[in-house]
Design goal:
globular; mainly alpha; about 240 residues; 15 helices; disordered N terminus
């Protein structure tokens, strides 16, 4: 039986280049705030859409991690997103040894997981999934939450989505408390989003958190947190 040949990074880059769309790239560059002084400053887009990248990730799911790192460290945004999508597949399909390797690789390369879409697609599926099953390592989330780096802080909060989906909310609310005084709007949004996810499953837990912390809570965080509340309850919170 002839084994399928492994893809090469060069082949993948050629595929992505052939799929590039200049208009999409220009739109993405604006959407992800790549201008001077913006949170995505200097990031480069070539204009390949996410559904196409997901298809490519399935096609190249056997790409060795050492080669995948070439994509993950690329200056091109879609290269990095594709690398993460491949790592997610490999993590979900791999044994504990491979999962540990992917988890450690992820944490060693947070400097290139540096926009909100890259974080949001991957943090719960790799960091959250590993920590849920290996709680002895959970302290890493507080370390990330206290980082000076915006994206490491967002990783810490978004990783807790895995716990929320398992019915565990304490970690999310502990980190949300820690991040109440964060100066970055993207952290307010992530925290509010995760509180909203808690509230969708246990509204009392979310309300208790809001009642304790509303005086200090950034308005963006509050608005995100109460988005799914009944209209009358949303208005009551907004008036507090």
């Amino acid at each position: 039986m002839v084994q399928a040949r492994e893809s090469t990074v060069g082949e993948i880059r050629k595929q992505l280049k052939a799929l590039a769309n200049k208009q999409d790239a220009e739109h993405q560059a604006r959407y992800f705030k790549t201008g001077p002084g913006e949170y995505g400053e200097g990031d480069r887009f070539i204009g390949v859409r996410v559904p196409v990248l997901r298809k490519l990730a399935r096609q190249h799911a056997s790409l060795p991690i050492i080669h995948n790192l070439q994509l993950l460290q690329s200056r091109i945004h879609e290269h990095r997103l594709l690398a993460l999508l491949i790592l997610i597949q490999q993590f979900q399909q791999g044994d504990e040894s491979l999962q540990k390797k992917i988890y450690r690789t992820y944490l060693k390369h947070t400097n290139v997981i540096n926009n909100w879409d890259l974080v949001d697609v991957s943090a719960d599926k790799i960091v959250g999934a590993w920590l849920y099953h290996h709680p002895q390592d959970i302290a890493v989330l507080e370390k990330l939450a206290r980082s000076r780096d915006l994206w490491r802080r967002r990783i810490s909060m978004m990783a807790t989505l895995y716990f929320i989906r398992q019915g565990q909310y304490d970690l999310t609310l502990e980190l949300a408390t820690l991040l109440l005084t964060d100066k970055q709007d993207l952290i307010h949004k992530a925290s509010g989003w995760m509180i909203r996810e808690v509230g969708k499953r246990d509204r009392k837990r979310a309300e208790d958190f809001l009642d304790r912390h509303i005086a200090r809570m950034p308005r963006t965080m509050l608005r995100y947190a109460i988005e799914k509340f009944p209209s009358s309850l949303r208005q009551a919170y907004l008036k507090k």
